[in-house]
Amino acid sequence: MLGIVEAMEEQIRIGSRKGLELERERDALDLVFWAFVFLPILLFVLEGGLVGISSMTDILSSANRAIALIATSLLMIHLLLVARIGWVEKVLGLDGATARHKRLGKPIVYLFFAHLVISVTHYSLVSGSNIVSGLVDLNLNYWQIGLATIGFVLMIVVAYTSAISVRKRFSYEIWYFIHLASYVAVLLAIPHQFAFGTDFLAQPWLATFYLGLYLFVFASVIWFKLALPIVQSRGLRIQKIVPDLNNTTSVYIDGPGLKGIPYEAGQFFMLRVLTPKLWHQSHPFSVSSSPGEQSLRFTIGSRGDFTSVIPNLKPGTRVIIEGPYGIFSQKTRTKRKMLMIAAGIGVAPVRSLARSVISEPGDVTVLYRVNDKNDAALLEELRDICDQRQHNLVVLDGERFNQSWLPGLSELPDHSRLLELAPHALESDIYVCGPAVWSKSVEQTLKKLNVNKNQIHLEEFAW
Ligand SMILES: Cc1cc2nc3c(=O)[nH]c(=O)nc-3n(C[C@H](O)[C@H](O)[C@H](O)COP(=O)(O)OP(=O)(O)OC[C@H]3O[C@@H](n4cnc5c(N)ncnc54)[C@H](O)[C@@H]3O)c2cc1C
After folding, report:
1. Residue among 387, 329, 331 nearest 361 (CA)
2. Nearest Cα residue to atom 24 of ligand 1
């Protein structure tokens, strides 16, 4: 029988070395992505891209080629980040990958805009036309350029509708379908690269590199986002629907393929329910069951059009699950002690973690923030688990005052109250899951305590 330290070493590995390794994995991935940008530029320079520049048109031409190469590489990275590729997801988590994807959006649009403006200016200078007729000529005389321009307009629409202030006006589903246009935009731009891209034409292997990258990106999207979920979900059905407290419902999923979908406690899946009205939507839900339990379970709060019909679903309904995703799990754990802080339906992944983490009595503290402990989802289960596993469970119920994430009035600031509730907080990995504003407030408290950011693991239930 393994001791606790050996079990941790063998199964999850903890310690500062693991923290460093996780950081190195992220750095290595970033390095691979940046190589996609630097390699083509290096080749552009080595192949004489900056040699013999003697006129304005030469400057424009060279700058334009470099900008086009950088923009194309960034666009490929942008798509790779959300292609749900297993090894990207394992290192960055879906949150981390999506954050990087978002950061690249605007620079890519600016670079392609610069590419368009310089192309038209260059054409006008060479042909002696003005800018407007240059733009019209290019698009009408060369169908490949016409398609690329349509692609660029689609890209602007996607970028505009992704701006936070605009995005809030659409439902997730409408925003998602608009977002799919970015794949069409990329496809529309390909012909002009291979017909007019000076570097593509002069360096066949550079063209091969990009062709390979395009194929890899599109194959990944089709496999990871479409085919794999269908294949792995064969035979999965809703086994039962069980109402829980606080307007939540637990959905149990079972089927012959379930054993082939290993997940870790704390991870989430995208759930698609195959009924005539719901099949076109997939929504993320954390697993509230733990590995080893017979069925896969999600516990879902009624929030909007999709979640409010969950209680009415019939056992036997087919489902497709995509995932597992996320690093809100022991994968990122580096400490022996753990502090889990949940609010509302954020209890779902915390219940899953609490049941299956490797720990000794007293290593784990669970803080569960609820408005009313008589109406708190999964609370009884959590109590049983914490009793059996000898975790410390503190239910924080009551009203909220003065923007505090803790209940009730107190003279003490939140960070002092947290240390009273969880004295080993500073030497713990801290897992936080709850509504966005509440989670931010917990994060602020942890910052006040100077908790290292690698010790804080947040799961945001938002897109
Ligand atoms: C990683 C993750 C794990 C989650 N786990 C759980 C869970 O275990 N239990 C639970 O009850 N809820 C969970 N959620 C939240 C849940 O996905 C949304 O409440 C649900 O998708 C809302 O759908 P709706 O159509 O009912 O509501 P809507 O009226 O469409 O939206 C209500 C809210 O949910 C957000 N939302 C809508 N669709 C999505 C989507 N596809 N992806 C992300 N956010 C969306 C909207 O921005 C809005 O803020 C999780 C979210 C994320 C991102």
Report:
1. 387
2. 304
**Ligand 1 center from residue 461 Cα (angstroms):** 6
Q: Which ligand 1 atom sits nearest the alpha carbon of residue 348? A: 8
The closest-lying atom of ligand 1 relative to the alpha carbon of residue 287 is: 8
In CATH, what is the architecture of 330-460?
Answer: 3-Layer(aba) Sandwich (3.40)
Positive or negative CA dihedral for 70, 76, 81, 87? Answer: negative
Architecture of 237-325 per CATH?
Beta Barrel (2.40)
CATH 2.40.30.10 residue spans of the chain: 237-325
**Residue pair 298/326 in contact by the 8 Å Cβ criterion:** no
What number of other Cβ atoms are within 10 A of residue 77's Cβ?
21
* 402 Rama class: left (phi>0) / alpha (psi -120 to 50) / beta: left
- For the chain, what is the largest distance between any 2 Cα atoms, rounded to a whole number of angstroms? 83
pLDDT at site 111: 96
Q: What is the pLDDT of residue 397?
A: 93
The closest residue, in CA terms, to atom 38 on ligand 1 is 172
Gap between the Cα atoms of 321 and 343, Å rounded: 25
Q: Which two tokens stand for residue 398?
A: 């009551």
> Rounded to the nearest whole angstrom, what is the distance from the C-alpha of residue 135 to the centroid of ligand 1?
44
> Cα(51)–Cα(49) distance, rounded to whole angstroms?
6
Residue 47 pLDDT: 81
Question: If the chain, 463 residues long, is cut into consecutive pieces of 10 residues, what is the mean pLDDT of each piece?
Answer: 59 75 90 92 84 85 91 94 89 88 94 95 90 93 95 93 81 84 92 83 82 92 94 96 95 93 95 95 95 94 93 97 93 94 96 95 96 94 97 93 86 93 96 94 96 91 73
- CATH 3.40.50.80 in the chain: give the residue spans: 330-460
What is the chain's alpha carbon radius of gyration, rounded to the nearest angstrom? 26
User: Rounded to whole angstroms, how far apart are CA atoms 276 and 14?
Assistant: 47
- Name residue 351's beta-bridge partners: none
Instruction: Please check whether residue 412 is in contact with residue 448, taking contact to mean a CB–CB distance below 8 angstroms.
Output: no
Q: Which residues pair with 397 in a beta bridge?
A: 370
Residue 174 is predicted with a pLDDT of 85
Q: What's the pTM?
A: 0.87
Q: Please tell me the predicted confidence (pLDDT) of residue 328.
A: 94
State the distance from the centre of ligand 1 to the C-alpha of 386, rounded, in angstroms: 27
Residues with CB under 6 A from ligand 1: 171-172, 268, 283-286, 298-301, 303-307, 345, 348, 459, 461-463
